[in-house]
Each structure stands twice: as structure tokens, then as C-alpha cells.
Design brief:
Strand content: 25-35%
Strand order of the largest sheet: 6-3-1-7-8-12-11
Helix content: 25-40%
Shape: globular
Number of helices: 6
CATH topology: Rossmann fold
Oligomer: single chain
CATH class: Alpha Beta
Radius of gyration: 15 Å
Number of domains: 1
Length: 192
């Protein structure tokens, strides 16, 4: 990864508490190493308390609140997991509306672990194939999606290209694929 994302800004969307730290920091580093500019947004601007499974991790600073996000300012979006993170994020109407608008604009997204809960809330998995933490299988199926048990899965069959992974052990594949898809601007041919 060198400058594949040069000139591209990627939104990382989390709740203010509960994000799985490694699912935030590893993709963030991948975006930076590829020359992109990551931006952290949360329901409230300011502190984002990360977790290492159930133990408190580092505190990060959200650059923007979800209400300040504008689809046209970003070239890609990353939704990290952690159990509490997407469970809180999906109750934030502004976050859900932003994600829905982002997908409708055809811009690429990368979502890992429990992150698809926000997509379920926004009715964005219907007719899509994706992977996640295994316990979300029923939620995704009930929302009209097709769940697969794969390290990383790229779904080009909706309004945008969607990259998903199951867990922290999949981060190498997830980070590599999200850089590839974001570098293409979410072109459907890059997803194959």
C-alpha cells in the first residue's frame, strides 16, 4: 500500500463508547498507509472510548458529530464492530440516515464484526450478501440479506460495493480489500 488512496477521505463511524479498538485502528492505519485521510465521527464530537473485547482500551477523539457529516465529503465509509458500538450507533438517527444516504449515493463501504447491525437498522442488507460476527446471521437473514461465513466478502449487487468481514482475525484480508475497493472509487468491476 503506497498512495492508492491519495486525495481520498474515508469516514470512520462509531458510537462514543464500545468500538472494538483493533477494528478501528487497523483499518485506520491501512487508510493512512495507502495515502488516504481517515476522519472519525460519532454521535457526539469528542471522546470515543474503545474496548479490547470487554476491557477498556484507548480513548480517541471524534473529529465530527454524526449530524455534521455530509456524504459528498467522503469517498468511503468504515463501520468497525464491537458489540456495544453498533448497538448504540443504530439508535442514532443521524448516523443511520448518513449511512443510508452514503449507500444511496453509490459510495463504497467496509463493515466488520457487529458493524452490520447499523446496516440492518438502515434497511441496507435486503438482497445483499455479507458476512459478520456469526451471531448476526439471524439478524441479517431476517432483514432480507444472505449471510456467508467467509474471511472477507465483497458484494457489488446493491447500490454500492460493500466489503464485510467477520472478526479481528480477518483484519489483514479486510484492510487489503477495503483499500482496493476504496481506491477504485467503489467500481463494481473492482469488487469481482
Amino acid at each position: 500500500m503506497a498512495n492508492e488512496l491519495s486525495g481520498r477521505t474515508i469516514a470512520f463511524l462509531t458510537a462514543n463508547e464500545g468500538v472494538e479498538q483493533v477494528e478501528l485502528t487497523r483499518p485506520w492505519r491501512a487508510v493512512e498507509q495507502a495515502g488516504g485521510r481517515p476522519v472519525l465521527a460519532a454521535p457526539d464530537k469528542g471522546k470515543v472510548q474503545a474496548f479490547n473485547h470487554l476491557d477498556k482500551g484507548e480513548v480517541f477523539q471524534a473529529d465530527l458529530s454524526t449530524g455534521e457529516l455530509k456524504v459528498e465529503d467522503y469517498d468511503g465509509i468504515v463501520l468497525p464492530g464491537g458489540v456495544a458500538n453498533p448497538d448504540q450507533l443504530r439508535t442514532d438517527e443521524k448516523a443511520v440516515a448518513f449511512v443510508r444516504s452514503f449507500f444511496e449515493a453509490g459510495k463504497p463501504a467496509a463493515v466488520i464484526c457487529h458493524g452490520p447491525w447499523t446496516l440492518v437498522e438502515a434497511d441496507l442488507v435486503r438482497g445483499r450478501t455479507l458476512t459478520s460476527w456469526p451471531s448476526l446471521r439471524t439478524d441479517i437473514s431476517n432483514a432480507g440479506g444472505n449471510w456467508v461465513d467467509e474471511e472477507v466478502f465483497v458484494c457489488p449487487s446493491g447500490p454500492n460495493v460493500l466489503v464485510t468481514s467477520r472478526k479481528p482475525d480477518d483484519l489483514d484480508a479486510f484492510c487489503s480489500k477495503l483499500v482496493e475497493v476504496f481506491a477504485s472509487g467503489g467500481a463494481k468491476t473492482a469488487a469481482a
